[in-house]
Amino acid sequence: RMTDLNQLAPGTSREDIDTPCLLIDLDVFESNVRKMSAYCAEHGLAWRPHAKCHKSPDIAREVIAAGAIGLTCAKLGEAEVMAAAGVKDLLIANPLVGGLKLRRLAALRKIADPIVVVDHSDHVDALSATLPPERPVRTMIEVDIGMSRCGVEPGQAAVELARLIDGSASLEFAGIMGYEGHLLRVEGPGEKEKAIAESIGLLAVTKQALLQAGLPCPIVSAGGTGSYEITARQPALTEIQAGGGIFMDLMYRERYEPPHA
Fold it and tell me: Residue 141 belongs to what domain range?
């Protein structure tokens, strides 16, 4: 059996550490994790932090032990790694395209409870054609709240897509999400708060439209590290995705001044 030389013992010098390697101040890291979890709890929100900033099952276990309900993953591969490490509740925050990825999703569903995101009827059709009905996959709709990257228009467009999801035996409509990333650099607390309130307000409008159409909307998800302290105060939201704040590197601390910087 080969010796794993990547396992570092306490006291290893920096010169003996191979790169790339993530080095963190453990006390600061643990404090950041506690503060982010507590902030979400204080506002009555679940915390589903992004794993894209670390991709580490060990760190994932730390945030879940501190109160996170699960993880947000940028891609299917991240979710597969986290599921293999025992994490079950996994939001894959970008649409999955292609038969191979959908077959991998079906395999993932056997060991975890993933949530996928769609913003087009083609996504719904492909998922429905590939996934077995005996294990429905939770499916959320991304709403464009100003980022202009992905997502359906707020309101009726989301309702129509949710009806397609609700009509699929292989899918379970789980809610909506959005990302206010276009507002991270808005200057001035007042201006930023106003802009984020308007942006997240589009999710509230969409949730109300869904409820009026008889479609439950259990999850409303948003929030990045550079904005979560404002986003968490907005009505209709049920969870926060911010994850980079567990490290709070200089970019976040100096540019965005989150509450635990």
Answer: 24-255
